[in-house]
Specification:
Blueprint lengths: L2 H4 L5 H5 L3 H34 L4 H45 L3 H6 L2 H43 L1 H47 L2 H6 L3 H53 L5 H42 L13 H4 L15 E11 L5 E11 L2 E6 L6 H8 L7 E6 L2 E2 L5 H7 E4 L10 H6 L7 H10 L3 H6 L17 H13 L5 E5 L7 H15 L3 E5 L3 H5 L3 E6 L2 E6 L1 H7 L1 H9 L3 H10 L8 H6 L1
Parallel strand pairs: 3-8, 3-9, 6-7, 7-8
Antiparallel strand pairs: 1-2, 1-4, 4-5, 9-10
This protein binds adenosine-5'-triphosphate (ATP).
Adenosine-5'-triphosphate binds next to α12.
Subcellular location: Cell membrane
Protein name: ABC transporter
Pfam families: ABC_membrane, ABC_tran
């Protein structure tokens, strides 16, 4: 089972496994580069020796040039391969995390700020790349160079090496402590940067509200506070990072001083040749780069590990298919659902059977609801705000699962249907439908990109969009702007209806727009809904009387229960709440419109309803 399915942790070992081959080559090249580097002081020692003996200089010079070139070429190639692996790993991690996010339950998304998720997928993964690039191969190769250098130095002069290591050990201990603190600091900083991303997203997604509330100043200050937090914690990381390389440098400088003092005195007393001393000093010199690299890589590794902790949380996010993180919300819900197939009448498409449901650990919202939805016709859900109407749609689309009882489609528990099948059979149009930037056609085709031209035209016709599209500057190819801003509210909803119709669903769920539509748009939408309901089930949360009055059946929802059901006339005659809703839920404007047009249209006078 892959990490994606199991919700397991991101492990560096697993991440680099697909790139083992390329990494092995990179490390082998690194070893060659390290050997070429390690041979250079010997070559220089040879050169010094040859100069001392007045011998031919060409051989040591040619060897040295060869070693320099080999070192540079192989080192460059190795660095490219390692960087490439880092990029590949980051791409894989981003792809996996994006998949987890797209398949996460809607509840998980409700509970996590999208800006923070964005920061994790985009920027935390970059830290991971730096850690992998710097830490993995670079660290391995640098450590090899350090080890190789030390081995040669032990052969050259064990006493001098002992003194060198002693001077370096204090620096190494401090480096280790700094690196440990760096991880905590980096984790804190990543959290603050994520919070900044979340707040920025919050502001940008409510830009109109901010403007009409004259809150630009306030929001900027609020974001400024977040930026200060990110700045402060970032400084913490920077300080610790900045201390790593100098710590190693100081250790090296002290060891240089010690080696020079002790070495020169041994050369003076004849205990060591000048060539040996030169080689030893050069080896020490050559240790500088890898030691500094190891120390900075250690810092980057710690930051990468801090990022991995945050990426892990995304990886374990609860999934709609049930592969869930430990203790996540989705895991705790829906435990008692699914009792297999149940028998429903031939005319029944969907059925709620004694459904109880509450969001997460919150109070119960639906209290044992039972009702049927026939295969065709319009079922209108009406009821006071907060009574549970949208929650019914949430359970029909399986964004959530009942705590007990069953929701069935054609007799099968929706929890047992494959999600793509369920979402293909049940189309859902939100009250404020999401329109993606792109053209009208792209938006309509979004749920079924392979639909034929004829199917597309039919969906457009059914959604009563023909005139709207004809009036657009580029017809179907008109760009709708960010969030469909170039379309009106009613047009956006009809585009969303067409999008769902193109999937040819058995049932269309519609959270009717509450925005005021002009009477033409309202009539068009009403006709659209009724046209669609002739051949399939339509369940609409009805906000407009015109929809309610013409519904084939109306369910009156109150306090999480179905209080009454029937047609408009039946409910007017029998249900007090329905009468109240008819009286109060309709806007004054609509009532006036109904009053003034009652004699010219078939729509019943609302005042007379009031009196009923
Ligand atoms: N995602 C959620 N998490 C927690 N509680 C929720 C969530 N969505 C709705 N609720 C709660 O569930 C109850 C029913 O909400 P629901 O949205 O189903 O009502 P509604 O009848 O559709 O209301 P409205 O007509 O105002 O849209 C409310 O008390 C609401 O606060």
């Amino acid at each position: 089972m892959s990490a994606e399915q199991s919700g397991a942790s991101l492990r560096v070992r697993d991440l680099v496994r697909p790139y083992r081959g390329i990494l092995t080559v990179a490390i082998a090249l690194g070893v060659v580069a390290a050997l070429a580097s390690l041979a250079q002081p010997m070559g220089i020692g040879w050169l010094v020796d040859t100069v001392g003996r007045d011998g031919g200089l060409w051989s040591p010079i040619a060897l040295l040039i060869g070693l320099f070139c080999l070192d540079a070429f192989v080192g460059g190639l190795q660095s490219y391969l390692v960087g490439r692996t880092g990029e590949s790993v980051v791409r894989d991690v981003r792809f996996t995390l994006t998949g987890r996010l797209l398949r996460a339950t809607r509840r998980e998304h409700e509970e996590r700020p999208s800006g923070d998720l964005h920061a994790r997928v985009v920027t935390d993964t970059s830290l991971l790349k730096a850690a992998l690039t710097q830490s993995l191969a670079t660290m391995v190769v640098s450590a090899l160079m350090v080890l190789g250098g030390i081995l040669i130095m032990v052969v050259l002069d064990p006493l001098l090496l002992g003194l060198t290591l002693l001077s370096l050990s204090v620096a190494a201990a401090v480096t280790f402590l700094l690196a440990r603190r760096l991880r905590g600091a980096a984790q804190l900083n990543r959290g603050r940067v994520g919070a900044l991303g979340a707040d920025l997203n919050r502001a940008l997604s409510a830009i109109t509200t901010i403007k009409v509330s004259r809150a630009e100043e306030r929001e900027q200050r609020r974001l400024g506070t977040r930026m200060d937090e990110a700045y402060r914690t970032g400084l913490g990381v920077t300080k610790l990072n900045a201390m790593l390389a100098p710590t190693v440098s100081v250790g090296l400088q002290i060891s240089f001083a010690v080696v020079f003092a002790v070495g020169m005195s041994r050369v003076a007393t004849g205990g060591m040749s000048i060539a040996e001393f030169t080689s030893f000093v050069l080896y020490l010199f050559y240790l500088i780069t890898p030691l500094v690299t190891v120390s900075t890589a250690l810092g980057q590794l710690q930051q990468g590990l801090a990022a991995i902790t945050r990426l892990d949380e995304v990886l374990r996010i609860g999934q709609e298919d049930g592969s869930v993180a430990e203790g996540s919300v989705a895991e705790s819900s829906g435990g008692e659902t699914g009792t297999g197939n149940t028998t429903t009448g031939a005319g029944t498409l969907a059925r709620f059977e004694d459904v109880r449901f509450g969001y997460g650990t919150g109070p119960e919202v639906l209290h044992g609801m039972t009702f049927d939805i026939p295969r065709s016709g319009l079922t209108a859900l009406v009821g006071p705000s907060g009574s549970g109407k949208s929650t019914i749609l949430t359970l029909l689309t399986r964004f959530d699962r009942p705590d007990s009882g069953t929701v069935t489609l054609d007799g099968t528990d929706v929890g047992e249907l494959e999600l793509p099948e369920l979402r293909g059979r049940v189309g859902y149009v939100q009250q404020d439908p999401a329109i993606l930037s792109g053209t009208v056609e792209e938006n309509i085709r979004y749920a079924n990109p392979d639909a034929s031209r004829a199917e597309l035209d039919e969906a457009v016709r059914l959604a009563d969009l023909e005139d709207v599209i004809a009036a657009l500057p580029d017809g179907m190819s008109t760009e709708v702007g960010q969030h469909g801003s170039k379309l009106s509210g009613g047009q956006r909803q009809r585009v969303a209806i067409a999008r769902m119709l193109l999937t040819n669903p058995d049932m269309l769920l519609l959270d009717e727009a509450t925005a005021q539509l002009d009477s033409n748009s309202e009539n068009a939408l009403r006709d659209t809904i009724h046209g669609i309901a002739e051949h399939r089930a339509v369940v609409a949360i009805a906000h407009r009387m015109s929809t309610v009055i013409e519904a084939d059946r109306i369910l009156v929802v109150e306090g999480g229960s179905i209080r009454a059901r029937g047609t408009h006339e039946e409910l007017l005659a029998t249900d007090e709440l329905y009468r109240t809703l008819v009286r109060t839920d309709i806007s004054d404007e609509e009532r006036q419109r109904a009053d003034s047009s009652a004699e010219e249209t078939d729509t019943p006078r609302l005042m007379s309803s009031k009196g009923a």
